[in-house]
């Protein structure tokens, strides 16, 4: 049994980022509406991050790069950023090739130690 999704944006928990599932393929006409969705989720979420599930977009291409760049711009204008979930393995390489960097869910942020790694402290080190 399935039920229809209620109209409008889903409820957002203030502790976890909102998730926007991007269905594939996305047409050029759908991009402004998706940008509006990102802005609305930024206002509702309060976390400063919207997770974009890109697993359904299919093989990466310049259309997807354009879409993600526009979504990131919409998020930045609203005071936040987007994070990618479940990207095709070639997508981060393509984004890097065109000079765009996105945080991918499950990756360690730059400057942070990986999970399970503890920094050693020498007894004579001054407190920071």
User: Radius of gyration in whole Å, from Cα?
Assistant: 18 Å
Please tell me what the overall shape is.
globular
Approximately how much helix is present in the residues?
Answer: 25-40%
The overall pLDDT, averaged over residues, is 83
What is the strand content? 5-15%
- Given as residue ranges, the uncertain stretches (5+ residues, pLDDT < 50) are none
Alpha plus pi helix count: 3
Order of helices and strands: EHEHEHE
Main sheet overview: 4 strands, parallel
Distance between the termini: 57 Å
Q: How are the strands of the biggest sheet laid out side by side? A: 1-2-3-4
Structural class: alpha/beta
**Strand segment tally:** 4
Overview of the structural elements:
- The protein is α/β, with parallel strands linked by helices.
- The protein contains 3 helices and 4 strands; from the N terminus they run βαβαβαβ.
- The protein has helices at 31-45, 62-77, 91-97, and strands at 18-21, 49-53, 81-85, 103-104.
- A 4-stranded parallel beta sheet has the order 1-2-3-4, with helices on one face.
- Helix 1 runs parallel beside helix 2 (62-77).
- The protein is globular.
- It starts with 17 loop residues before the first strand and ends in a 24-residue tail after the last strand.
């Amino acid at each position: 049994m399935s039920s229809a999704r209620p109209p409008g944006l889903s409820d957002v928990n203030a502790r976890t980022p909102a998730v926007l599932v991007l269905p594939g393929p996305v047409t050029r006409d759908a991009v402004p509406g998706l940008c509006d969705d990102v802005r609305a989720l930024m206002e509702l979420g309060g976390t400063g991050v919207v997770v974009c599930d890109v697993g359904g977009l299919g093989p990466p291409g310049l259309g997807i790069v354009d879409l993600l760049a526009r979504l990131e711009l919409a998020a930045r204008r609203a005071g936040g950023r987007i994070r990618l979930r479940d990207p095709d393995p070639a997508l981060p390489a393509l984004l890097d090739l065109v000079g765009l960097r996105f945080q991918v869910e499950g990756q360690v942020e730059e400057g942070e130690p990986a999970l399970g790694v503890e920094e050693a402290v020498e007894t004579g080190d001054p407190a920071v």
